[in-house]
Amino acid sequence: MMKTRDFGPSGMKFTAIGLGTWNMEPSPAESVKAIRAGIEAGANHIDTAELYGDGKVEEIAAEALRGSRDKVRVVSKVMPVNASYEGTLKACERSLKRLQTDHLDVYLLHWREEDTRIGETFRAFEKLKEQGKILGWGVSNFGVKDLEEAERAMGKGKMVCNQVLYHLKERAIEFEVIPWCKAHGVAVMGYSPFSQGGLPASPAGRPESPALKKISKELGATPAQVTLAYLTRDPAVFGIPKSSHADRTLENLRSADLALSKKDIEAIEADFPAKPRKTLPTL
Questions:
Q1: pTM higher than 0.90 for the full model?
Q2: Would 182 be classed as within a structural domain?
Q3: CATH code: domain of residue 29
Q4: Any idea which residues carry the catalytic annotation?
Q5: What is the three-class DSSP state of 4?
Q6: 90-114 pLDDT, tens digit each
Q7: Backbone CA torsion sign across 135, 232, 31, 71
């Protein structure tokens, strides 16, 4: 059984590593097997969105969750184009139908555009909570300025998480976003932990560096597992790696058993130094 952590102020507990689903639509059968393998191994949350495959990935997730829905927290997202008050309510209904469930555990605004009226979106989220169609809500790709505006609009303790880009070559959220979220009790979900191929990698496509090689050898782990252990070392931070291969999914989840030393962390950070950014990095 995988250990769980408090997920922001939601009252829910999530495993440190969950199941990402972005770009699963090209291989639905393999993706269903991978998700099911992850659930059987103890991962208790899955992340998806109406954007992914124009809804097809939510349908893949529904198939994978058949018979296991009560074991898994389901997170989905509404796109800004649908994020008016009425649009959010309707988008949620569509996601519920595709996911074949009566509620989402967490519903997120996928990102904010210049004309996104977040007050309307959040008011809709609160209505959905009243109706029992979502248990909690949060945001994605929000920098500190937007997080502060969201909290001013709705009050502290309403927003449960912020889902943001986080991998070894993109650690900008460590400077402001993670500290703000921790100070305000908001969980951080890091997406694309392997940078979708943007990290130095082995021929098999897994992350690689001198420190990762050395630490993985010492711990009897893989560089990918060490990577995930590093990214989720803070109890407030969760990772959602995606794989359409069951063996890779199981490899990812086993990272939750690793304990990195201070020396290990320093070695990894020497290989992948953090750089602050003026704007929040996204894909």
A1: yes
A2: yes
A3: 3.20.20.100
A4: 52
A5: strand
A6: 999 999 999 999 999 999 999 999 8
A7: negative
